[in-house]
Amino acid sequence: MSATPGTKLAQEIHDEFLVCKICLEAYKSPKSLNCLHTFCEQCIENHILSESTYKKYTDYREFTCPLCRKRTQLPIGGVKKLPDNFLVSSLSEIVQR
Fold this sequence. Notes:
With 97 residues, the protein is α+β, with helices and mostly antiparallel strands. It has a single domain (5-96), classed as Zinc/RING finger domain, C3HC4 (zinc finger) (Herpes Virus-1). 39% of the residues lie in helices and 12% in strands. It has helices spanning 5-17, 41-54, 86-96, and strands at residues 30-32, 38-40, 62-64, 71-73.
């Protein structure tokens, strides 16, 4: 029994656009960076911590995107204050239906 075209499309959308490229799981609290890449809030938090321990003299107010290496300014208030990606959140809800 093969999957319906709609189910196949939903799976492709999920795999390509709704999975964090750090943890490889569905986004949890998706946050956008300046470069418009999106990651889970906790994944970005962990990335910043590992980057700052790796580069002892780094500026903690800025970090690099794990995919494209562009710099993003960390807002006052930390990762929680990065913009939410509402498109990813909404698309995820639709695909789950």
